[in-house]
Amino acid sequence: MALSVVDLYQKILPKTNCGDCGFSTCLAFASMVVSEKLPLRNCPHIEPEKLAAAENELQEQYKAGKWTKKDMAADALLWAKQRAASMAIADLPERIGGSLATLDGKEALELPYFQETILIQPDRILKKSGDPLNWWEQTFIFNHMAMGGRRMPTGTWKGLVELPNTVSKVKSMKAHVETPLIERFQGNPQALQQAGLAIGGEDQRDATPGADVAMLFNPLPRIPVMVTFWDEEPEEGYGAEAKLLFDETIVEHLDIESIMFLSERIKELLCDETD
Ligand code: SF4
């Protein structure tokens, strides 16, 4: 039987996100093993018997050409859907916000998503305009539904490193979110400010003394994200700094992969806005 990314993650890998394989999460490593044939034994924490059996199965599926990247996207979405399926739509407003609506005669959740509105049913998510969301956005939102804790944001902001079990992702956050923001907006924080306002951000500089940009986003009702930016001060010897801050409750609403997806999405929207 072929091993999918989710099979590997759920049944074979230790799920500790220790980073010893060179990847920040077990899920990221699993996807590289399945799609790029990275040796499974690069994870040194798998019991030898389990490792041998899984390697045999992987060799078979590599030969048969199973699990392409497209399959993997479908696999991650299916898993997220399965996890979310236990949530009754009627319970969702209390958990993740939004309101109940009807779509094609069936109950749906209407949820603000960035500057759009999306409609969610157990087996599909689409924009209110009727446009589809891409695979990864759907996966991200189904994951949010599956986790959706009840707590409202408390207003206590934390950097990624201060959230539990995220140390291994700090490097990715720097490489894929903070550094691109610095490279794009260094010397021109006004452009970041304008891009933020254009995609629905609220200026929070009054509450963040010294920051050149402090912008609050509400990509989803229970998930505020703050983007802060300090421009370079060459005379003082400081380089530019960009940071994303999350409400402390975010870990009740999103897994680490989804937090990373959301952060990269915000970075993309800010950079696209100034293209
Ligand atoms: S080495 Fe990689 S796959 Fe293995 S437990 Fe650590 S992060 Fe997970």
The number of helical elements comes to 9
Major beta-sheet overview = 5 strands, antiparallel
Give the ordered list of helices and strands.
Answer: HHHHHEEEEHEHHEEEEH
- Give the low-confidence spans: none
Bound molecules: iron/sulfur cluster
Q: How would you classify the quaternary structure?
A: single chain
The SS-based structural class is alpha+beta
Strand order of the largest sheet: 5-9-8-7-6
If you had to describe this structure to a student in words, what would you say it looks like?
- The protein has three domains: 63 residues, Electron transport complex subunit B, putative Fe-S cluster (3-methyladenine DNA Glycosylase II, Chain A, domain 3); 67 residues, no CATH class; 117 residues, no CATH class.
- Helix content is 41%, strand content 19%.
- It has nine helices and nine strands.
- The strands form two sheets. A five-stranded antiparallel beta sheet has the order 5-9-8-7-6. A four-stranded antiparallel beta sheet has the order 1-2-3-4, with no helix packed on it.
- Helix 1 packs across helix 2 and helix 4 packs parallel to helix 6.
- The radius of gyration is 20 Å and the shape is globular.
- The structure holds iron/sulfur cluster (SF4).
- Iron/sulfur cluster binds next to helix 2.
